């Protein structure tokens, strides 16, 4: 099975505990996911995060309804966690979230190892462009969310 890797990072000027707390609330995923995906988290709140936690979602990929279940397979607060698809559209989806304190703020890192049905052509034409758009949207949303928090705390 051929796997692919997507990486991105964004620096947020907020405390590590605040950034990690945002990401460790699974229901915030809906806030940073593009609206055209119609993401709905099916697991009721509150979701107690930790190794072995399963989270169920419903979304639309290119207009096709999809059910997805992820499992938290690594949990290292406030430095990172890993979620892996246990049921869903990919052959493999392993998303590593990292949070590193720097002089400029918290570097939020995303590393996604994935495999798709149909291999390289499907990945290049459809999957990779979709992943890039999703993470670009996510980055914009995070900037807005954490910029607002910074400004509201400064008043």
How would you describe this protein?
28% of the residues lie in helices and 40% in strands. It is of the alpha+beta class and 155 residues long. It has a single domain (4-154), classed as 2-Layer Sandwich (Alpha-D-Glucose-1,6-Bisphosphate, Chain A, domain 4), CATH 3.30.530. A seven-stranded antiparallel sheet has the order 1-7-6-5-4-3-2, covered by helices on one side. The longest helix has 36 residues, at 119-154. The relative contact order is 0.22. The mean pLDDT is 95.
Write the layout of secondary structure elements.
Elements: E1 4-12, H1 16-23, E2 40-41, E3 54-61, E4 64-76, E5 80-87, E6 92-102, E7 105-115, H2 119-154
Antiparallel strand pairs: 1-7, 2-3, 3-4, 4-5, 5-6, 6-7
């Amino acid at each position: 099975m051929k796997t692919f890797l997507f990486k991105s990072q964004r620096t947020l000027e907020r405390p590590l505990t605040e950034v990690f707390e945002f990401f460790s609330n699974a229901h915030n995923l809906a806030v940073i996911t593009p609206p055209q995906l119609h993401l709905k988290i099916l697991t009721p709140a509150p979701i107690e995060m930790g190794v072995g936690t399963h989270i169920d979602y419903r979304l639309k990929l290119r207009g096709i309804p999809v059910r997805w279940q992820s499992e938290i397979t690594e949990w290292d607060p406030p430095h990172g966690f890993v979620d892996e698809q246990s049921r869903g559209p990919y052959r493999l989806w392993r998303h590593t979230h990292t949070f590193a304190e720097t002089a400029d703020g918290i570097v939020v890192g995303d590393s996604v190892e994935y495999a798709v049905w149909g291999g390289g052509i499907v990945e290049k034409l459809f999957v990779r462009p979709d992943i890039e758009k999703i993470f670009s949207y996510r980055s914009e949303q995070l900037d807005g969310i954490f910029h607002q928090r910074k400004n509201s705390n400064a008043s």
